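Friendly challenge for the regulars: who can give me the structure tokens for this chain first? No prize, just bragging rights.
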Amino acid sequence: MNGFVDSAKVVERVSGRDAIFSRILSRIPEHMDLLEQQQLIADCVAQMSAADRTELRTLFESFLIHMREMEASDIEMGGVTANSHIWFRVQGKKTPRTELGIWTTDQTDIIAHCLLSEKQRERLFSRRAVDFSYTMQRPDGLWRWRASLYFDLGHLALNMRAILGKVYPYAKLGFHPVISRAFSLRYEKQGLILFTGITGSGKSTSLDSIIDANNRSVDGHIVIIGDPIEYIHTSQLCIIRHREVGRDVNSFKEGAVQALRQDPDIIVVGEMRDPETIMTCMEIVDTGHKVFSTLHTGSAVETIDRIIAETPTEEQERVRNRLADVLRVVISQKLLPGVDGRLVMAKEVLLVTTSVRAAIRNRNVQEIYQMISENNRMGMITLEQDLVRLVHERQIDEKLALDFANNKRRFQELMGY
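First reply, four minutes later:
Bragging rights claimed.
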């Protein structure tokens, strides 16, 4: 009898969802421009009853629950090229999950609009993309995701990345004690510290570990500016403020400038994504603060070159000298599939010494790679040296390590080829 009742409820729920989709789609003219269709769908969703919205959110959250069960890092939905499937990335590999059913682009458009607030919907149409965070309250606590919704051939495509429910232990990051002192507010009160790498390389995970380590070890005030805010820290020895771009502040630059009037010790700027934010971060360090941020670069040398190149030609000499003064550490990360199927972090670590500062000022940035390779005792390591270490420890495959190396010839030399 119980099985019969459960089946009946499932049929009823599916029928209810189909009815919601049909009601909205019946109001969309067939030959309307795709962008106008999206606006009309958004209007329909805005007028939707709370019960209907909850129904569609519950459907979407069933995908997220399945995602957690699969230990997937990302979910993809919507857009023509998703081929009507929901996709998961599990241990670095992204594949369609056929068990989650077939969903038309119109249906996924409607579901996506249901996830947004009115302000987020306005931002979506003005910028053709919107970043936001999504939260589910579960028996074991709060589940959170970082989301990006964007237009794709006139339809909506969604990526959501799972945010770890707990901070990755700092000790497991494997940083040298000299580098750990540079991260700590107890030992160094100012300086610019950058984490770099492609999207999905673990930059946010590393930053959250460092924030947590400071929070547990030294009194202070930390202001985090994110787009969106990912992990929410509980204040311990530090009071930690979380400001989300678009909700609590208009931009990274504005958040950083405003933070100076909030008596901070550490300011975390989620991304230095434009010249104005880069300059603001350097100016904040000049005022005696510690700043952590990220860039989408693949090595320490590339990071320095990128920062200088982002500024107008007439400003580059001044920026070069200022960067030499304020830059403290650059960490460039990559995540590789390990031999056990789990992801392994490889990193390049630059500690800015007197010699490195001189190389930046004198436009000899290409000499810095050699400086890194020769100063392992100070905690520095090139990506290629770290890849060799991981191969020798049998954490990663040698051929894979070569594929991920920035300087393949140097990696081969270190391996004794």
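The chain has 16 helices and 13 strands. The CA atoms of residues 28 and 36 lie 9 Å apart. Your move, everyone else.
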